Amino acid sequence: MTFKVGYFVGSLSSTSINRVLAHGLISVSPDDLEFFEIPIRDLPLYSQDFDADYPREALALKSAIAGADAVLFVTPEYNRSIPGGLKNAIDWASRPWGQNSFDHIPAAVIGASVGAIGTALAQQSLRGVLSFCNARQMTAPEAYIQFNPDDFDEDGGVSNPRTAEFLRSFMGEFRDHIQRVLTVLPRGAGAAS
User: Fold this and answer.
1) What total of structural domains would you count in the chain?
2) Is residue 144 within 8 Å of residue 123, measured between CB atoms?
3) Range of the domain at 23
4) In this model, does residue 24 exceed pLDDT 60?
């Protein structure tokens, strides 16, 4: 069985180190995980005024999440929290009320920063939001990556063996988490919050 994982890159930057990390994670993931990016760049700012008539970008976002067995968030830390673009995407996906796309979905959170705490506070902020959205989060292992460009190669792989092993272990745990959650509660079986 293959699990489809939709991944979010929290940064909108064309030079995002978290996009590099996302590609590295994919390169060391178990073979039964299939990845696709869920884009957030073109979403307008969320407003409740749109709830009765969602724009096509927001409908595409919700459709992409519906096509995933699980979601992976790879996010930077902006001002000790998550980037506005990522929060905006979560707001769109969790609305209108009663049509929360994250309800019961297996989820994992990871991020990279050049700083020593490696997105720890952004991840805690994101976990709080995902808890309210009723996502089934992998709570361990936690992964706060202090980004070193020498750990990654130009082809999207991980060139540092120690980093590769850590990321491989994280993704193996995520794969097991997905299977556990979907065994107990298959996608679509939960009540939307």
Assistant:
1) 1
2) yes
3) 3-184
4) yes
